[in-house]
Protein 1
Amino acid sequence: MATTWPTDRATCFAALAREPVSFTPWVDAPTANVCAVPAPVVVQASTAAMTPTLRTSCPMMLAWARFEPEMQRLAVRRLGSEIAKIHHYGSYSCRRMSGNQRRMSLHSTGQALDISGFSTTDGRYISVRDGWRGRRDESAFLRDLGQTACGHFNVVLTPAHDRAHHDHFHVDIGPWRFCGA
Ligand SMILES: [Zn+2]
């Protein structure tokens, strides 16, 4: 069964406010039919700075916020340092799925997030593109992170899945379950 998160604005905002996330409502978010974002938020930072500032749905950010303690634990274990910045390619994009043109991407409603890399508090940058097959500790961190993410999101796609994800992790909270880590 796919996990669900609250899409109702009041319920989700209250839940997100209990997490260490600084966010504001995304007031000019798209509202038109197939590309409307449920409970849209602008996120400046969580336990790490979102780089750049993230525009997404509240349920997507809630799922990510609940995953972050795992990310920080793995970073300390594998890299000896916490994550200070999360680098991403964005959450919202009104488009069809890259692998299935008949379906709208989960990005079209801000229910997906593409993560491209991580900066540690001691100044290292680990990109998904170079780290996946790179230094032993960076590769271990990214591979562990992908596996762990499968317990927190409905879909996880990594460089282990296909060429389209050679430089980022895709995580989403859509209706299907798939672990491509
Ligand atoms: Zn994606």
Note: The first strand starts at residue 22 and ends at 25.
Protein 2
Amino acid sequence: MTTYANDTLVGTDCLICGARNLSGASLCGQCSAPLAIVHDIAAQDRDPQIVSIIGESNVGKTVYLGFLLDMLTQRAGDYEAIPKGAYSIDLPQTVISHMAQRSFPPKTPMEANEWYWAYYQICQRKPKPKWIDLIMPDMAGESLAAEVASPNTFKVIRNLLRLSAGSMLLVDAALAANGATQGDFFAVKMLSYIDSMHAAKRDERIECPIAVVLCKADFCPECFDDPRRFVRANLNRLWNLCESRFANVEFFSCSVVGSLGYATSPQEDYVVPIPLHTGLQGVLEPFQWIVDQF
Ligand SMILES: Nc1nc2c(ncn2[C@@H]2O[C@H](COP(=O)(O)OP(=O)(O)O)[C@@H](O)[C@H]2O)c(=O)[nH]1
Ligand SMILES: [Mg+2]
Ligand SMILES: [Zn+2]
């Protein structure tokens, strides 16, 4: 068990990178993780676990995590969730309020000091009550790509992935269904990065649970029927790597919109999708599976 030093006279040790920060600082000077988390942890009797939401830019990480956190606080699926600190509510609030106004939330900035972080105490009531504390940061896809392309350049990402107890790997199902290979390649890069970081022996597979989530499944409803088959057929590189290197992988499909419209304005020459109404499908299932693995 790790202990997190939190001495207001000497300063605060960052949970993610371990750097010592001056007391009173709100973000870690080294990696920009919020130091409020450290103070909030000190008040708890359990060490938190990190669940990382990973995937290319624009796959739907921010929207997914925002809805997931909101569902948990609304006690979906018999969970009880207590957000620790106001910063934990900013992400669901941003996502829900944008969607209520029929727009998607803005793109996550590359700079780690602008990311949303969520720290929740979650109780799974069935089969018997089990409490876990989770930290879930909303990382930017470009930053993940930058770290994967040249490891050790984005320290906060490296540390987060190294410390993660489980990951949700989001992949754009709509693009994959249309035959695009980019999502497949990105997912493979992401997992091979995790593989090399664990540095397990070649004949041992990595135990860390990975939920592969097919996002935007509203565009290709067939992936709800059989996400495994969809991945095998449309994301075959990813499928193969999962089989050879990861012992604990499961596949899911998810969508957050019931129907979409498209709009443009006379001054602009691009079209934006307008979520006409929210329709959540498959948001809780990958989370449930990850939590069951702990
Ligand atoms: N059709 C559809 N589009 C979605 C869904 N989730 C996200 N999107 C689209 O994907 C875009 C990027 O989502 P975002 O969560 O910001 O992606 P991120 O870059 O991975 O954080 C949104 O602006 C929407 O246009 C979904 O469930 N269905
Ligand atoms: Mg985002
Ligand atoms: Zn730090």
Note: The mean pLDDT is 90.
